[in-house]
Design goal:
single chain, Rossmann fold, alpha/beta, seven-stranded mixed beta sheet
């Protein structure tokens, strides 16, 4: 098991249409021996959408990780001082979350978990899922690329004709990206063809 003993904070943010693609990748990390600590944004923990119901997502995450997800700022704050994690994953990572991270905002459990983790100079991996990645969000993504200990799951435009500014990571590359980030490397290529 390649990730035996690795402690992964796993933040899920509100790209509700992508959660179904992300949960199997969380399961793969667990099967590789990782200990996963799920962290849910308020949008995921409390919003029912046409893609999923909040209670069902909570139940799936709880069953996969074998523990209660962290939903409050007070639950994630100790990540920094107690060095609870080896790596932090945000998947899916919305444009709003990218903006918060780029600006140093820590007003959600996921963004505070990242900030608390970064203070220990440990890696954060983002699996992008945003309809505005080549629009207003692009400046935040560019700023994060210049930040030490920030890595992305390789991504592409998911529908260049109908949604030309939309970006989405290839979620099945999440485990390989985590392994590379733990070695301090960015999985390449970052930009994938359509």
């Amino acid at each position: 098991m390649r990730l035996s003993g690795v402690r992964i904070g796993f933040g899920l943010t509100g790209s509700h249409c992508t959660i179904a693609e992300v949960l199997p990748e969380m399961e793969k990390l667990i099967k590789e021996g990782a200990e996963v600590f799920p962290i849910l944004s308020p949008a995921v923990a409390g919003t029912d959408t046409r893609f999923n119901r909040a209670k069902e997502v909570l139940a799936q995450v709880r069953a996969l990780a074998g523990r209660e997800p962290w939903l409050k700022l007070t639950e994630v704050e100790p990540i920094g001082p107690e060095k609870k994690l080896d790596i932090m994953v945000v998947a899916p990572c919305t444009g709003t979350t990218l903006a918060r991270l780029a600006m140093g905002l820590s007003d959600t459990p996921v963004t505070l978990a990242c900030k608390a983790h970064w203070r220990n100079e440990r890696p954060v991996v983002a699996a992008i899922a945003t309809n505005d990645g080549l629009g207003g969000t692009f400046q935040h993504l560019a700023a994060l690329f210049n930040r030490k200990f920030f890595f992305v799951v390789p991504f592409r435009q998911d529908n260049p004709v109908e949604k030309p500014k939309s970006l989405v990571s290839k979620m099945d590359l999440l485990p390989a990206t985590v392994e590379a980030a733990l070695r301090g490397c960015q999985l390449q290529p970052v930009l994938l063809g359509s």
